Amino acid sequence: MTRIAFGATLIVTAGLALWAQSAPSAASFGSLKYRLIGPFRGGRVTAVTGVASQPQTFYMGGTGGGIWKTVDSGHNWVNVSDAFLPLGSVGAIEVAGSNPNVIYAGTGSSKIRSNVSIGRGIWKSTDAGKTWAFTGLRDIGQIATIRVHPTNPDLVYVASIGNPFVDNPDRGIYRSKDGGKTWEKILFLSDHLGAADIELQPGHPEVLFAAMWHGQRKPWSIVSGSPDGGLYKSTDAGDHWSRLAAGLPAGEFGRANISISNAAPNRIFALIEAKPGAGLYRSDDAGANWTLVNGDGNLITRPFYYDTLLVDPSNPDVIWVGNEGWFKSTDGGKTFRNSPVPHGDNHDLWINPKNSDLMIQSNDGGANISIDGGRTWSTQANQPTAEIYQVAVDNQFPYRVYGAQQDDDTVILPSRPIGANVDFRLGPGCETGPIIPDITNPDVVFGSCKGQFSRLNLRTTNEQQYWVGGESLYGNGGETLIYRFQRVSPMEVSPHDPKVIYYGSQFLHRTRDGGVNWAKISPDLTAHPEGTQAASGEPITRDATGEEVYSTLYTIRESPVQKGVIWTGSNDGPVYVTRDDGKTWTNVTPKDMPPGGRIQNIEPSPHRAGAAYFAGYRYLLGDFQPYIYKTEDFGKTWTKLTDGSNGIAKDEPTRVVREDPDRAHLLYAGTEFGMYVSFDDGVHWQSFQLNLPHTPVTDIKIAHKDLILSTQGRSDWILDNLTPLHQWSDKVNAADAFLFTPRDAVRVPGRQGGANRALVYPPSGAEIDYYLAKPPAEVSIEILDVAGKVIRKFSSETGTAANPNAVIEDDGEGGFRAPPLPTRLSKTAGMHRFIWDLKYPGPWLGDARPEGPNGPVAVPGKFSVKLIAGSYTATLPLTVIEDPRVTKDGVTTAELKEQFDHNMRARDLLSEVNKAVARLRAAQREMKDADTKRKLDNLATHMVTPGIRYSKPEIQTHIQYLYSMTTQADQKPGRDALDRYQVLRKELDADLAQLIELIGPAK
After folding, report:
1. End-to-end CA distance of the chain, in Å?
2. Is the pTM of this model over 0.90?
3. What is the enclosing helix (H) or strand (E) of 328?
4. φ and ψ at residue 918, rounded to 5 degrees
C-alpha cells in the first residue's frame, strides 16, 4: 500500500487489498470477551417507572447504562436492553397501564449535562422487556417524557427537547396511534423550543398538558429559558393546543415539569424555572388559572438539570420535589421538608397508583426502591452503571485500574482478586479526576479535583492538597479566572521521570516535587474565542460549576519514545506540540479540522517519536462527525482517519484513540456508541464491540497486553490478552488452522478471592489461542514439559464443554466459586481461547475419571503447546512464571519444585489407595468364601472411612488430607507433610500387602 499525504488529505492505493489480506473479520475474534471489573455501584439514572399490577417489578433507564429491570423490588437488577439497543442513553421509559407487557423507551437523557449522549429514537417491547424493537423517531434527540393512553397501549405521546446542542425542527410533541409504526408531530412552535414534559389528565386522557422549553447546551454555557416557552393544553388528544397564561410567569420561561394526582384530576401542579417568578405553581381549574404556591429557591436548584416533580397519585396534598436535595410536602406544596434518599442529585420518581408506599426514585447514584413510602430505600450497590471519566493503570501484579466516577468518589479497582470482599477502594481527588498512580510506587496516587491537585499514600489517609493558582472554580467564568481549569482538568505523569507531573489550565504546568511547586511552561495553548468566557447559565439560572469553562487544556501527553516531546489539546480546538520540553511551542492543529471542537484525547505513538493520533468531537456544537487524525511528522501534516465510510459511521462521535504498544499501527478507538479496531493504521475500522454494552467509551489504556477501558454508564472493562491481535498476519488468513504464541502464564496461588458475583475475573492459567478457518474432524492440544513429555492432552471429542450459562456462586466463606474451566476444545470456525489451568493430571478417581481435576500445579519454567487440527500441527513455547507477590514473599522456584515433587508423590499415593479401595470394594461384593470376605471386611475398616459424618478417618481419608495440605498455596512444603507422607506410605504398603495376599495383585 502507498499513502501520499498532501496537507490533511489521504490518498490510498491498494488499501482494500491489504485490508482483505491482513485483518481478521469480526467473526474471527471468536472467544475474545470483555469482562466487567466494576465499580459495582450505580451511576446517573434519569428515567424510572414501575408496573402497577406487579408490585415488585420496576424499570430504570441510565444515561449511558441502558435499560434495567428488577422483579424483586431492587434486590437484583438485570439489564434487558444490551442485545437490542445500539446505545445506552435512556431519557424516558413507560409501561402501558392496560398491558404491562408493552413498554416504550425513549433514548437520549433529557437532563443535559455537557457529557450527555445523544438519543436515537423510540424502542418498544411487547414481552415485558425480553426483546426490544426500534419503532421510529431516530433523529428527534433527547426524549424527556413518554405517556401511554390508559386503556389503549397503541396511543402514545412523546415529549422531545430535540438535539440539545443546536436549534432544529425535530423538537416538540409527537403522537402515534398505531403503537409506534407511524408518528405525527402534533405540537411544534419553533426550532429552538422543545418539549420538557407531557401529561395526560387522569380520567380524561384526551386532555393533555405540555411544557415547552428552550434548552440548549453550548461548550461554554447552558441555555435554559426564553420568552416564548410555557405551558400548553389540548382538549382533543393533541390535535389543537392553547397556551396557558393566567397566573403563570410572563418573562423568561425555563424548564417546567407537570404533575397531576389521580385523586384530584383538575388540580394541576407545575414546577417552573422562570425569571421572575420561579417556583411551584398550582391550578385548581384544570389549568385555566394558576397560583404560585411556593417560591422557595431550594425547590428550583439547577432546574434545567433536575426539575423533578411528582404528586402522589392517591393524595393530592403529598408532593415530591427533587434536585440536589429530595423534598416532600404533605400540605399541597405550601411547605417542604428534607426526605432521606441514598444519593443526591435527584432526577425521577414513579409511585404505584394502587399503593403509594411502593415507589422507585433515581439520582446520580442509580435507582432505588421504597416499599414504605420513601422512609427507606433499596441499595444502589447492585448496579454496575457508573460513569467513569478516564482510566489509568499501574505496573504491579495484579495491576490496578484507576478512574473517577461522576458524582461519586474516585475508584481503584483490581484487575483480578486481591483479597476477600475487596472489589474496589477509594482514591484521592474527587468525582472528576483524573487520578494516576506513581509509576515507581503504586502506593502513591496523584489526584485531581476541579483544578486542585493532591497526593495520597494509600498506606495512610493523609491526602496532601496542593493548588495551581489557589482559586475556586465555582461561581467564576473563564474571563475572571487566573487559570482556566475545567472540572475534568488533564494530568500526565512523565513516562521518563516519575517526579515530573503535568497539569493543564489554559497553560501547561509542571511540578517536580509532588505538587508543592508548580511552574508554567507554556503560553496560552487555546483558541480563546470571544464571547465564550462568561459564567455559564443563561438567561435565568447561573450555573458556574467549572463544567463549562471553555478554552482550557483537555488532554496532555508526553511521548514515551522521545523525552521532551509534549502534546496538548484544548476543549476549543487547538493542538500544540513542544519538542524541547516546553521551551517553544507550535500550533499544529489540522487545517481541515473545523474550529471550536474538543480535543478529547491525544495518543503519542509508543513506536515513533514524530507520530501521534488524536480523537476529537464537536457534537457540543451540533456536529456529530467522527474526528480521528494522525501525524508522522510532529504535526506538520495530518491524515484524517475517519471519513464516515471506512468503518465508523458519519454520525458517530469519537472520544479516544490508542495505538497498541506491542504492534505498531494497530489502533483502538472508543466512540459515543462503542469500540472499534483498525489493523492498518486507521485506513479501515471494524467493530470491536464483542460483548461490550453499547455505551460511550470514555478512555482506553493498553497495558500488560490487555485492553482496559472506561465507559460513561457501564463502569470499567478489561479485554484480556491481546496477543492474537499482535500476531495476526496474512499467514493466519491463509491457514486452515493457526496456533498463536501464548503469552507468559502467571501461576496464581489459592482460590479466586472475594468480590461481587457480577464482576468477572480471569481464571488462573495459560491462555492458549488458536484459529480455525473451518471445522476439522478433531482438534487437540498437548501440553509438553521441557523434555517434550506430554503432561496433559485436551481434545474436541472428550472432556467437559464450556457452559455459557455457568454463573459465579458464593462459596459461603466471603468469596466466590467460579465455574470449572472447560476441558473440551471448540472446533467451530474462528478464533478460540482455551485455558490450561497449569495443573498436571489429578489423582485417579475411577475408571471413568482416571485423571482427577485437582492435579499438582506446574513449576515455573519452560513448556510447549502443541496444536493438532486436521493436517495442521504446530508446537510453540510457553513460559510459566510465578506470581510476583509470592516471589516477593521469599518463595523460590527451588522450593516450588520441592513442593511439586512432594505433591506428585502424594497424588500418586492417593491414586494407589483409591485404586486399592476400588479393588477391595469389588472383592467384597464378589467374594463367596466367608473367611476371606471377613478378612476383606476387616481390612476395609482400616482403609475406608465410614460414610457417617465425623467418623474416625482411615488411611484413604488421611492420604486425601495429606494431598490437600500442600496444594492450596505456593510454598516450601513443611517437614510435617514430608514426614507424614513417609508414615502413610508405610501404612498403605502394609494394607496393600494384605490385599494382595487376599485377592492377588492387580491385573
Report:
1. 68
2. yes
3. strand 326-329
4. -60, -40
SS3 237: coil
Q: Give the amino acid at 902.
A: H
**At which residue does the C-alpha cell 469482562 appear?**
35
Parallel/antiparallel/unpaired status of strands 612-618 and 598-604: antiparallel
- Is the backbone of residue 635 left (phi > 0), alpha (psi -120 to 50) or beta? left
Once rounded to an integer, what is the mean pLDDT over residues 893-899? Answer: 97
Judged by phi (left if over 0) then psi (alpha if -120 to 50, else beta), residue 539 lies in alpha
Q: How many CB atoms lie within 10 A of CB 198?
A: 27
Nearest CA to 48 out of 77, 107, 102, 91 is that of 91
- Residue 60: CB partners within 8 Å, gap ≥ 6? 45, 47, 48, 67, 68, 77, 93, 360, 362, 366, 367, 383
| pLDDT tens column, 315-373 | 999 999 999 999 999 999 999 999 999 999 999 999 999 999 999 999 999 999 999 99
CB count, 10 Å around CB of 925? 9
Q: Is the pLDDT of residue 755 over 60?
A: no
The yes-or-no verdict on residue 811 having pLDDT over 60 is no
Q: In angstroms, rounded to a whole number, what is the distance separating the alpha carbons of residues 708 and 133?
A: 31
Question: Rounded to an integer, what distance in angstroms lies between the CA atom of residue 65 and that of residue 386?
Answer: 8
Whether the Cβ atoms of residue 658 and residue 702 lie closer than 8 Å to each other? yes
Question: What pLDDT, on a 0 to 100 scale, did the predictor assign at position 203?
Answer: 97
Which amino acid is located at 251 in the chain?
G
What does DSSP assign to residue 922? H
Cα angle 915-918-924, degrees, rounded to a multiple of 5: 140
In the three-class reduction of DSSP (H, G, I as helix; E, B as strand; rest coil), residue 861 is classed as strand
Strand, coil or helix: 345:
coil
CA–CA separation, 336 vs 345, rounded Å?
17
C-alpha span between 243 and 247 (Å, rounded): 12
Mean pLDDT of the chain: 93
As to burial, measured by CB atoms within 10 angstroms (0-12 exposed, 13-18 middle, 19+ buried), residue 461 is exposed
Q: Would you call the peptide bond into 1001 cis, given omega within 30 degrees of 0 as the criterion?
A: no
Cα 548 from Cα 475, distance rounded (Å) = 11
Phi, psi of 86 (to 5 degrees): -85, 15
Quick check: helix, strand or coil at residue 405?
strand
C-alpha cell at position 764: 488462573
The pLDDT, as a whole number, for residue 815 is 53
Q: Which of 705, 49, 734 is nearest to 350 (CA)?
A: 49
CA angle at residue 849 from 845 to 853, to 5 degrees?
80
Phi–psi pair at 921, nearest 5 degrees: -65, -40
For residue 510, give the C-alpha cell.
509542571
Reduced to 3 states (helix: H, G, I; strand: E, B; else coil), residue 432 is coil
Q: Which three cell numbers stand for residue 445?
A: 496516587
Q: Which residues contact 380 (CB under 8 A, 6 or more apart)?
A: 41, 42, 342, 343, 365, 366, 367, 368
Which residues are paired to 706 by β-bridges? 703
- Could you tell me whether strands 221-224 and 538-539 are parallel, antiparallel, or unpaired per DSSP bridges? parallel
- CB of 602 within 8 A of CB of 578? no
pLDDT band for 188, please (50, 70, 90 cuts): very high
Task: Using the predicted structure, report yes or no on whether residue 810 has a pLDDT greater than 80.
Answer: no
Q: Which residues on adjacent β-strands are paired with residue 601? A: 615
Strands (E), 480-552: 491-493, 501-504, 508-511, 519-520, 538-539
Nearest to 5 by CA among 638, 684, 646: 638
- The segment with the largest mean pLDDT, out of 188-197, 418-427, 468-477, is 188-197
Output the nine-digit C-alpha cell for 905: 508423590
